[in-house]
Structure formats: C-alpha cells, structure tokens
Amino acid sequence: MSSSSSSSKTIRRLEVQSPVPADIDIANSVEPLHVSEIAQSLNLSSTHYDLYGKYKAKVLLSVLDEVEGVGDGYYVVVGGITPTPLGEGKSTTTVGLCQALGAFLDKKVVTCLRQPSQGPTFGIKGGAAGGGYSQVIPMDEFNLHLTGDIHAITAANNLLAAAIDTRVFHESTQSDKALLNRLCPPNKQGKRSFADIMFRRLKKLNISKDNPDDLSPEEVKRFARLDIDPESITWRRVMDVNDRFLRKITIGQGPDEKGMVRETGFDISVASEIMAVLALMTSLADMRERLGKMVIGNSKAGEPITADDLGVGGALTVLMKDAINPTLMQTLEGTPVLVHAGPFANIAHGNSSIVADKIGLKLVGPGGFVVTEAGFGADIGTEKFMNIKCRYSGLTPQCAVIVATVRALKMHGGGPEVVAGKPLDHAYLTENVALVEVGCVNLAKHISNTRAYGVNVVVAVNMFSTDSEAELKAVRNASLAAGAFDAVICTHHAHGGKGAIDLGIAVQKACENVTETLKFLYPLECSIKEKIEAIANSYGASGVEYSEQAEKQIEMYSKQGFSSLPICMAKTQYSFSHIPSQKGAPVGFVLPIRDVRASIGAGFIYPLVGTMSTMPGLPTRPCFFEIDVDTATRKVRGLS
Amino acid sequence: MSSSSSSSKTIRRLEVQSPVPADIDIANSVEPLHVSEIAQSLNLSSTHYDLYGKYKAKVLLSVLDEVEGVGDGYYVVVGGITPTPLGEGKSTTTVGLCQALGAFLDKKVVTCLRQPSQGPTFGIKGGAAGGGYSQVIPMDEFNLHLTGDIHAITAANNLLAAAIDTRVFHESTQSDKALLNRLCPPNKQGKRSFADIMFRRLKKLNISKDNPDDLSPEEVKRFARLDIDPESITWRRVMDVNDRFLRKITIGQGPDEKGMVRETGFDISVASEIMAVLALMTSLADMRERLGKMVIGNSKAGEPITADDLGVGGALTVLMKDAINPTLMQTLEGTPVLVHAGPFANIAHGNSSIVADKIGLKLVGPGGFVVTEAGFGADIGTEKFMNIKCRYSGLTPQCAVIVATVRALKMHGGGPEVVAGKPLDHAYLTENVALVEVGCVNLAKHISNTRAYGVNVVVAVNMFSTDSEAELKAVRNASLAAGAFDAVICTHHAHGGKGAIDLGIAVQKACENVTETLKFLYPLECSIKEKIEAIANSYGASGVEYSEQAEKQIEMYSKQGFSSLPICMAKTQYSFSHIPSQKGAPVGFVLPIRDVRASIGAGFIYPLVGTMSTMPGLPTRPCFFEIDVDTATRKVRGLS
C-alpha cells in the first residue's frame, strides 16, 4: 500500500474480532483522531472550518470559493434494492466502500451522509452511523445533537409556525389601518417606513411606493392583510422526538387567544421543508431566497402566502446560517466524512446536501471519490437523487452502487414476511438458490432503472454469514445479465474497509469507464401529471389514478405557477408499487395519487401515494431504557 | 495600569462614540479575539475546553478537579431595585463592572451570565448581551443557539413528555403480564432481565428481586404499571419560540391514539425544570440523580412518578452531557465571560449556573472576582440566589451590587406609569429630586433585605443623560443611610469599563471588608408554610393567605417527603407585593398563594402568587422583521 496521498496519514488499521461485537463497543474501542488532522488530510487550513469539540468541525461553505481546485473527483451514489424492514446495510456499505477506497486503495475519498433524527435513536431504530466495522465515530456525537443543525431547523420551522398563527390572530382583531400602523410604526421623528423585507411583498403585489403613508386604502388592505385561510395552512410544527400524541392536536385553547382554535399537528423535525431546503440549497444567498419563498398556505382569495409575506424569511436564514456548513467527522479507519442534512425519503427527497457533495468533490479532486447515500430503495432514493438533487446541483454521477442482500432477494422471491423484532424464518438462514434467483427480478429492475440515467451500476452484495456460495453467485449472474457494470461480494460489516476492497476496485473501474451522459426521467417543462406518470411508469405501473383532492391540488399548483418543479413521490419503500406486500417487480398496477402537496422553497411537488406517517411513536420499551452516561468515565452507554 | 495579570494581554481599548450607537453596530465594530486567547488568559490549557467555532468554547466541568488552585476569588452578585418594564440595566452593569475590574483595575475577573431564550430575541425584547459599550460579543452568537444548551433542554424535556403519554397509552391497552413482557423482553436465549435503570424503581418499591420471572403478580403490577393519573401530570412540553397558540392545547387527537386526548400546553424552553436542574447541579453524577428524580405527576394512588420510573433519566442525562459545560465568551473589552443556564426568574430561581460560578472562582483565584447576575429585583433574584443557589453550592458571596436608576426611583416615588414602547413622561426627563427621594424607599428596602444575608451592599446607579447631580446625590445619600457599604454613579453604557471604575473600586473594598458570615432567611427544616411566611415577611407582607388548592398541594408535598426543600416564590417583579402597581415599599398586604408546585429534581417548591405566563407571545410587528443576513458579508443585521 503506498502512502502517497496525504489522507493516508490519518489511516488507522482495525483489529477485527469475530463474532462482531456490538456497534457501540466497536465505536468506543477506537480513539478518534482530532478532527483537525482529518481536515488537514483534505488540505483544509484552519480558516476553512470551525471546530465543534475535538471530533467534529463545520467546514465553511466558503471553501467552495476559496480552495484552489483543478477539478472534481468521481461522484458515486449508493442506493439499494427494495428493502426488508430490517434494512439491507446501505449506510454501512457506504462507509465500508469509503474505508476501502481511502484506507486500502490509497484514494482520496469523502463519505457524504445524512444527519439522523434523534427521535428514532431513543425509540426503536437506534442510531444511523453505519454498523460493525464500518461506522462513523464518535457514534454518540453523530447520533445526538451533532453540531445543532436539526435543532436550528426545529427553531426556524417553529418560529414560522408561531408567526403564522399570531398574524392570523392580530389580523382578526385590527382594521387595515391599525394593521399598517403596527407593521410600520413611526420612528422618534414620527416618520413611518417599510422594513426591508416588506419590499419583497410590495414587489409581489406590484406596489412600487416606498412610503407607507402613500398607500391607497386598497393598497393598505392588500399589503397589510395577508388574509390567510386557516383551513389552507399546510405548515406544521416540528419536534425531533417520537411524540405520537402530537400528530393531531388543537391549538389556541388558552383564554387569551379568544377562541381562535385550530386543528394542526407536529411532524418530526427532519420532515420540515426547511430540512429539504438545507439539502438542496447551493449558497447562503440561495438559501435565503428558498426560505423566503416557502408557501405556508393560501389567502382566502387563493394566493400562496410565503415566509417573506410574513416578514420572517430573514430571521429564518439567521437561525440557519451555521447549519449551512457541513460537519466533518471520520470513519473507524480514519477517512473523512461530511454529515449534512437528512430530509425524509418519502415526503422529501431523502438525500444529504448538495453543498456537502460539492465540497467533497472539490476536496478529493480528480481521481478522488465522493460517495453519497440516497435513502430507501433505488426507486425512491436514486430516482430523486437524479431527477431532483442532480438537477438542482448540476453535478453528474459516474457510478451508482445498488446494495443487495440475499435475505431481501429471498423475500422478493416469495420468502415469508420479514418482521422487525421477530426471529427470521428458516428460509432466510439456509441455502435456497431458487428463491434468490426468482427474487433477483427486483434487483434487475433497480439495475435497469438506474442504468437508464446513463451511469454505470455496480451491485454490492452485503454478505451475511448464512449466505451460500451458490446464492451469491446467482446474485452476481443476475446482476450482470441485467446490465450491471459489475457485482461484488462485500464483508465490510465484519472486516471494515478490507471487506470492500473488491467493491472499491469495481467502483473505480465503473467511474473510469463512463460512456454516456446523464439523462433525466422527465423534462421539467412537461405538466405535473406527465411527470407523475413518467415516474409511475418507471415503477412498472400501467397507469395513474388521481383522487378528487389530488386533481384539485394539481390544478391549483399549476395555476399558481409551480408546475415546472420536479416531482418527489411519497411512496412506500417496501415495494415498487404502492402496496408494501407486492414484492419482486410488480407490473400492471394503477398507482393511486391520494393528494398532492408542495415544498415550494425546497423546490418540488410531492404527490402522496397512500398515507405517510411524519411522526413516529415510541414502543412500550424504547431504546432509551438502555441509554445512560457512565458518570465516572463520561462515556455513553447503551446507544445502538 | 500595570500589566501583571495575564488577562491583561487580551484587553482591548474601546474608542467610544457619542451619542452611543446601536448595540449591534457597537458589537460588530469590534473584532473579537479567538476564544483560545481568552481561555489562555485564565490559564486554561487546550485540554480544558472544547472550541465551538472561533469565539465560543465549552469549558469542561473537569477543570474543577484538574486545575491547580490555591483558593477562590471574591464572589459578587448583582441584583436590582424593583424595575420599570424597561429594565434598569442589570446585565449591562454586570458586564460594565467586569470590564472595569479586568480592563482598568487589572484584576482577574469572570462574568457569569445566563443564556437568553431565543423566543424574545425574535419577539419584543431583543437580545440580552448587555448594551452600549458593555456587551458580550459576538452578540448574535450569544443570543442565538450559543452552544446548543437550550436546544438540548428542549430535546430532553420533550423526550420525557413523549415518554409519559406513550406509557399511559401502552398501559391502557395491556395487561400487567403483557406490560412486564414488553418491558423485559427475552434475549436470544429466552432469558428476561431488568434494564439497569429499572433497579431504581424496584428499589423505590422495596422489591429486591433481580429476575423478572420471580416477581409475584402483585409485584408485577406495582413494577410494570405506573398507573399515572393523567389529571395529575404537571410535565409540559417546551419550545424556545414565543408561540402563544401552544399555551393550551389538546393532544392525542390522531386516529391511532384511540381517543386518549388530554389538555396540556407548551412553555418556553427556559421554563423547563431541566433548565433549573442545569443551573443547580454540581457535577455530572449530581445532574444524573436530579434528572432521574424529577416528578412528572402522581399515580392514581398519589405516589409521585419520576423520570427514572419511566426509564428515561439516563437518556435525559445523555442529551444533557455537553450542556453541563459552561460557554466561554468575551466582553467588548476582552475580559472573559461564562454563559450558562438561564432559568425563569419566577417559576424558577433566575440565576446562572452554580458550576459556572465555581469554575470562575477557581480560575480567578484569591484577589480575583466572579460577578454573577440574579434575575429581576433583589426581592426575587438575590433572595433566591442566597436561599436556593448558595444553599446548594455552599458558596458565600462577599458583596451584593444593587442596580438602581433615577428613572425607576421616580416611578417608586409616585411618577406616572412607565410603559414599554411608549414615550417616557416628562417627569422622567427633567429634574425632580423630591420624587427621587420618596422613591428611595424601594432602594432602601432592597438594601436592608440584602444586608440581612451578611454581605456588603454596593449600590450602582446606572446613570442616564437626563439625571441631574442633585438627583444622583439623593440616591447616594439614601443608599448610605439604608446601610449600603457604598453607592457609586456609573456610565458604563456610554463609556464601557472606564465608566464603572469607581464601582469596581467600591466592590473591591466591599469584598475586602466583610465582617459577617452568610445568614439564610429560613432554615430548611421548618415547614413549607413557615418558609413561605418568612419570605412574605421579607417583602413587607403582614400575612399569607392560601387557596384551597395551595393548602392541598402543601399537604401533598409534605406527605410525599418534600417539605425540606427551599422555596422559590413565583411573584411579579414589579412590586415587593403581589400587586404590580404597588410601587415603593408597600406594607400590610396579605400575600395570596394561589397554588403550590414543585420542581423536585431541581430541588425547590414554588408557590404561585398570581398567574405567571410561561409562554410569551409575538406582537403584530415582532423584531424578526428587521433580522436578516447580509449574504455577501455573512453578518447578521437587525438584532437588538
């Protein structure tokens, strides 16, 4: 192994044990490097980042302008086949692949991961730092608080929510004139003026006056009275806690709120549109504009009302100004990781941030690698990566990895239901090549769908100890037959980067041998329905069925001028279709669109295929029962 | 000025302008030092703190054990007279005094301040970093997010809230046996066991078995069924936003929550008991115990139910493990500041943290000064500082500063009502010595009340340009007559530390000339009512009147074994009495106790004198209209 790349100075060799210990024990067994060493391995100087303790640093967005670069590295996206409820190891594979590239193949590499929600960490799922010998460390810092980005999102989201209800309240008790007087109070000299942000609304209303006293009564009404229809408010409050009792609530029941009650609810913070904005913005100025144009509902006349109409777009940006910078961490083997954003993978696009990927691509430079993960199966995560994220970023991936497991393929081949928390059926623990072969229809469809974007596809088979040679061979054969560039067996969970060396080599070759250019699934100019139908078609649907509500919303968004946005399908991750029990590669189904919503600031329309829960709950015995601090060593115990 | 103290290396001289520019303009006109230089001035090595960007660092609690120290510095608390709604400049005086001590009198000094809530920053009040030429910088970082402590409190508070409702929900649908099975699930070998945290509940129940299978049916019921009375739940959710529509809400209206609706509400985050715990804990282990014993309500049988009964005390501690470390910042003149905790000053004790004060006292050492602020007037802040905070910390102050303004004294002398946002009456802008002299009765009572603790009192007259010589002289005379050690005119708002040199000298002399020992207002052993009456007596009340509800609660807390806790009065800050309009030093009133509540984890009982709002609202034009980021310079605009 040569040590020519500067990153190799941070490389740490793992002594792996068998059987693989618990994640937290592996994570705690390694002493992380000071993050400034990780930064140095990427040629970052201390002016390029802010430390947050010893093991985390925020890389400042300004490096995109300040760091000299000769070009970008290779861009690799990791998706998966349609998963079982246990997950097929996509994050773990992402980390393992990078450990292989950085620690064994002497490549410059940056892993781009999403920041996990704290809710599931204390609930059922546990953390999201990878697993086994492929993890981001310190895993407790990765899973909790990190550098406060989700907290900033919560604060901004809820400031906007408070601004909405308070504005409706104040408008209900004041005349147009009184409202204007309050909004533009006189200064000590008795002169009124507009706040800077008010000129955004004035411009939207085509009012070009710059003195509040010059407005006509009609203009006063149009400017000062947003006239929000309470029924139309789509903006909900958020909290980074699994609190099911907040899913549907009634607010405003205090005596001072004068009976202005309203039904609404809380989502988990990562479901906030502001999270999607963070993931899709490309600069501070771009974020400012996106936050300001987020639509929270309509006026009674049907006009969309934005955060800037409420005067709060600037304050939201101030709350988010540090969250804009990705967080640098490290893998168990000392390679760099950028953690940034973590939007929901159904009601949002489920990918980490554009700016983290861009910074990574610049820092690794030509011949280096940025590996970024896309949530859920490739039908959802990779599709949105291509058609939403790459469309906004202008970046082009060279290779898409699809993570598969023999377990999930057996399920797609007709194996019994897999249920989290229950023992696996015998079928999953003993050889059954036929089941695997039938199930590969799911993998094949993900491969051909992903190939259609013009990228090379490498299948990573995340190997379990119960997998047989014949089963693994069947997956490899099916992959190549379906058009994969390569298909590789990986053991990074048990062996760290060493277990993903073949995958790293395959990914490198795939990147070096691109023959096509990036092709989107649909052009932005076509109608909302045409775009929905293009995606449904890629799922295998024979048609699309719209509810009355969906039709109404599509018509409204088209009228409001939002029809040129990309589409973000909110669909189950457990099937290509809308029915979770339909495994394999179902065809001939009609995809039902129950409702259509929009994240105008983030920049997409999201049709709802079925009901999406945006606030998880806690079980009778949540993870938190195990979690504590050893007050003597200050180490966290029980995180999984 | 000698430069013998190492802190003098960080001292920066201000070029003051007249008239005094806006706070944000002064703050932005100074380039802060890297916080590692501030740390170095306190002889902290880089292992003693974690950087959070360039201008903030968390000082690790371990310095209390690790730093060699020969003894503590002087301990000074800053209180005030009964204020007008405009505030009399207590934070500004605290900062100005420290700038004088550190930058002009060559003393080692640490300022201890509370972290402000973000809610009012975007609402009416604006920030809380001091004002004029006496501020903490960078003021935007001070006022927003800081190092995430309040966000951690929000997360912990709301995890506990979710745990409560979810537990009630799961208990309502499961038998005792099913509950136990869920709480203690079998491992792969089919063996059940208790989680570590469950032994806390078992111990409380006097059950000494360590195998779930050995519990008798009666023991299963007692252990597994908390049987929380929903009506008794006092734990509310919190949010660091002024969101009045959350004051009273109905939760659980989603279809999956099966009609288990309940009325509750949100407080602003700084009102969380966890904030009071943070302010009063003395170590990580102490915090773990306090968080675990927080009482959230009662069982139907009337037993208090704690966070540890719910299995979540450890997880709360994990969420708070970084918040335990105070944040180091700097004043405009380069002296060090520790920002930590910020509990409400009525329903909680309104003082910054014990550990910040302790760290400060050790770092400044003998001859140095720690200046810490106590919220509201001395009847509230200083009283709680002495009887609650010093009781738990074991620390003894040498000097109490009482901040007074001619404006407020005129109000106490019978001047017209002072209303925030409205122009001041003529009486406050022209000389009126008689009004001041009459008003000094309020100051005199604060002085004698504070003297009674055995500390020397220095009055700081925060001078305004409209104050006359004769008025200022009247205040000084009245102060000395009431037993103050000294009374000094200060102009730190206009001149920075230079304007508080005389105050610094007076404080130094007061500290060097202590003749008494610390005396509390009441012993802990007396009854809840005796303690309430001792405090009421100090206000000037002739008696106390308890509502039926208050009587019931006092009886319950006494029965539950909580009667030896100190008392934290929730009273208006605008009068010694419970009636805000009673200025001066009213006597002969009967103090009504409407209700009595308890923060068992924090460690106090709080009687409610009148109604306390724990969730502010937003006006028609909140501060946020002015707040934005300059996307070119990345500077925050419009913060006040």
From TrEMBL, chains A, B:
<dbReference type="GO" id="GO:0009257">
    <property type="term" value="P:10-formyltetrahydrofolate biosynthetic process"/>
</dbReference>
<dbReference type="GO" id="GO:0004488">
    <property type="term" value="F:methylenetetrahydrofolate dehydrogenase (NADP+) activity"/>
</dbReference>
<dbReference type="GO" id="GO:0006555">
    <property type="term" value="P:methionine metabolic process"/>
</dbReference>
<dbReference type="GO" id="GO:0004477">
    <property type="term" value="F:methenyltetrahydrofolate cyclohydrolase activity"/>
</dbReference>
<protein>
    <recommendedName>
        <fullName>Formate--tetrahydrofolate ligase</fullName>
        <ecNumber>6.3.4.3</ecNumber>
    </recommendedName>
</protein>
<dbReference type="GO" id="GO:0004329">
    <property type="term" value="F:formate-tetrahydrofolate ligase activity"/>
</dbReference>
<keyword id="KW-0436">Ligase</keyword>
<comment type="subunit">
    <text>Homodimer.</text>
</comment>
<dbReference type="GO" id="GO:0035999">
    <property type="term" value="P:tetrahydrofolate interconversion"/>
</dbReference>
<dbReference type="GO" id="GO:0005524">
    <property type="term" value="F:ATP binding"/>
</dbReference>
<dbReference type="InterPro" id="IPR000559">
    <property type="entry name" value="Formate_THF_ligase"/>
</dbReference>
<dbReference type="GO" id="GO:0046655">
    <property type="term" value="P:folic acid metabolic process"/>
</dbReference>
<dbReference type="GO" id="GO:0006164">
    <property type="term" value="P:purine nucleotide biosynthetic process"/>
</dbReference>
<keyword id="KW-0554">One-carbon metabolism</keyword>
<comment type="pathway">
    <text>One-carbon metabolism; tetrahydrofolate interconversion.</text>
</comment>
<dbReference type="GO" id="GO:0005829">
    <property type="term" value="C:cytosol"/>
</dbReference>
<comment type="similarity">
    <text>Belongs to the formate--tetrahydrofolate ligase family.</text>
</comment>
<dbReference type="InterPro" id="IPR027417">
    <property type="entry name" value="P-loop_NTPase"/>
</dbReference>
<dbReference type="Pfam" id="PF01268">
    <property type="entry name" value="FTHFS"/>
</dbReference>
<keyword id="KW-0547">Nucleotide-binding</keyword>
<keyword id="KW-0067">ATP-binding</keyword>
<dbReference type="InterPro" id="IPR020628">
    <property type="entry name" value="Formate_THF_ligase_CS"/>
</dbReference>
